[in-house]
Automatic annotation (TrEMBL):
Signal peptide start and end residues: none
UniProt-recorded name of the protein: SnoaL-like domain-containing protein
PANTHER family hit by this protein: ESTER CYCLASE, POLYKETIDE CYCLASE SNOAL-LIKE DOMAIN
Cross-referenced Pfam families: SnoaL (PF07366)
Single GO biological process annotation from the record: polyketide metabolic process
SUPFAM superfamilies given in the database record: NTF2-like
Organism of derivation: Arthrobotrys musiformis
Domain of life: Eukaryota
Length: 141
């Protein structure tokens, strides 16, 4: 049996992939702390759309998912290794599009209280993004 928190998280990721921002918002506390800075729900959604808007086919894929359903602490925790795949058509994470599909690795840690996300800490493999997005003369891919 899958943990309830894992099910919530999988539904949240599917809502992002479906661009169902109303459903995504329903998983958020009114203020979400992302990498130590507070954002109201609309601002948090704007952070996500910085990645999704430039690449309409972009999808988040869960590679590794761990969840701690213990509610006796200061919230439940989810840790995920995400593979984010898509073909940027506009500037993507600060890089010009190349027409090639990219795969971005993100490590994300979420704290849930009452079934809603209150804090997110993420690390994105920007070197991997740069390797895929920057044209290097003479480099054969």
């Amino acid at each position: 049996m899958m943990s309830p928190l894992k099910e919530i998280y999988k539904t949240y990721i599917q809502a992002i992939n479906d661009r169902n921002w109303a459903l995504v918002t329903s998983f958020l506390h009114p203020t979400v702390i992302w990498n130590q800075k507070p954002y109201v729900a609309d601002e948090y959604i704007a952070l996500i759309t910085r990645a999704t808007d430039p690449a309409p086919d972009l999808k988040f894929h869960i590679d590794i998912l761990l969840a701690d359903d213990d509610e006796s602490k200061e919230g439940q925790m989810v840790s995920a290794r995400l593979l984010i795949r898509g073909t940027p058509e506009k500037e993507f994470l600060g890089f010009k599009p190349t027409g090639r599909n990219v795969e971005v690795v993100e490590h994300a840690f979420y704290r849930f209280v009452g079934g809603r996300i209150v804090e997110v800490r993420t690390v994105i493999d920007m070197e991997g993004v740069r390797d895929q997005m920057v044209e290097t003369p003479g480099l054969v891919r």
